[in-house]
Amino acid sequence: MAYAAIAVIVLCMNSMLIFGMGYTAQVLAGRLRTLGWQVRGTGSVGDLAFADGAAVRAALAEATHVLSSVPPARDGTEPVLDAYGADIASSGVQWIGYLSSTGVYGDAGGAWVDESTPVGRGRRTARADADLAWQALDARVRLFRLPGIYGPGRSALDRVTEGRAHRIAIPDQVFSRVHVEDIVSGVMAGFAGPSGAYNLADDLPCSQNMVIEAAARMLGIAPPPMQSLEEANLSPMALAFYAENRRVANGKAKRVLGWKPAFPTYREGLRALSASTSPNIAKPAPDAARTDQR
Predict the structure, then answer these.
(1) Residues 65, 17 contacting (CB under 8 angstroms)
(2) pLDDT tens digits along 3-53
C-alpha cells in the first residue's frame, strides 16, 4: 500500500498507545506523529512508566489503537498481558497489534514457512506462547511476525565497520530479514486490514554471509574471514540464531494488506542506509557563527 493511501486512512485516527518504545516502535511513533497522531508509550524513552497502572489505564482509555512490542520475560511470562491484558480486551480501542517473531516457526531446514505453519516447534517456546496468547486475547488483534530487523544504526554496515561481523561456514544456511521502515508500513497497512497473523519479511531470504559481503563491498573494505561456529566464539544467543534455518514467505501481507516492501532485498536496504550515512563531500563547511548545529 502506498504511503499516500496509508496517510488517508491514518488521518482519521489519532491516538496510539505503545507498550515498549524500542527500536521499531520508535520509528513507528515518529511516522505517526508526522501524520498528526498522539502517541504515548512505556519504556525508557516513553512518557509512561509501565508499573504506573493508573496512568497506563488512563492512556488506554483515550487510545484508538494499542500496540505491544514487549517480548516475553526471561521467565517466560508475558508482562503486558499479565498486567494489562484484561484492560486491553475490555477497552474501546479500534485496533490491537503485537510485534511477534518468525522464531515461533522454529527450524524448517531451509524450507519456506507462512502463517499457516504451526508455531511452537522451535527454541523460542515463550515467544510462541506469547504469540498464541495475543491471538486469543481479542478479535481485534493483528500479529506481525518479524525476522531479523535492520535499519539505521542497526545493520550489517554497522557490524562490519565496528568489527563485529562474522562469516560462518554453514552450507545452505538462510535467514530472512526486514527493514524497519517496511515493518512500519506493514503495521500501518494493517490498520485497515483484517485481524490475524502477518509475516513482514523481505523477498530474498539468503545467507548472512551474503549480506556481510555486500556491506563490506559498499564500505570498500575486506569482509571478515570465514570461520566455523567454534572459531567465531559466538555468544549463546548468536549460536541459537544459527541453530534455525528457514525462509519466511510474505505473500499474505501483500495480498491481504496491500503491503509492498520498499526494500525488497538487503541490497536496496543497504544501499539506502549507505547513502544516508555517507558524507556529502561537496557540501560547504558550516558558517563559523552558527551555534545551533548539533
Answers:
(1) yes
(2) 444 444 444 558 999 999 999 999 999 999 999 999 999 999 999 999 999
In three-state secondary structure terms, 81 is: helix
What's the rounded Cα separation, in Å, for the pair 227 and 235?
15
Q: What is the pLDDT of residues 187-231, one digit of tens each?
A: 999 999 999 999 999 999 999 999 999 999 999 999 999 999 999
**Cα torsion for 143, 125, 250, 184, to the nearest 10°?**
50
CA distance 172 to 168: 11
In a domain, 29, yes or no: yes
Residue 203, domain extent: 3-275
Tell me the per-residue pLDDT of 136-166, one tens digit each, with 9 for 90 and over.
999 999 999 999 999 999 999 999 999 999 9
> 154: which DSSP letter?
B
How many structural domains does the chain have? 1
Secondary structure letter of residue 170 according to DSSP: -
Three cell numbers written together for 241: 540464531
- How many C-beta atoms surround the C-beta of residue 265 within 10 A? 19
Beta bridge partners of 16: 39, 65
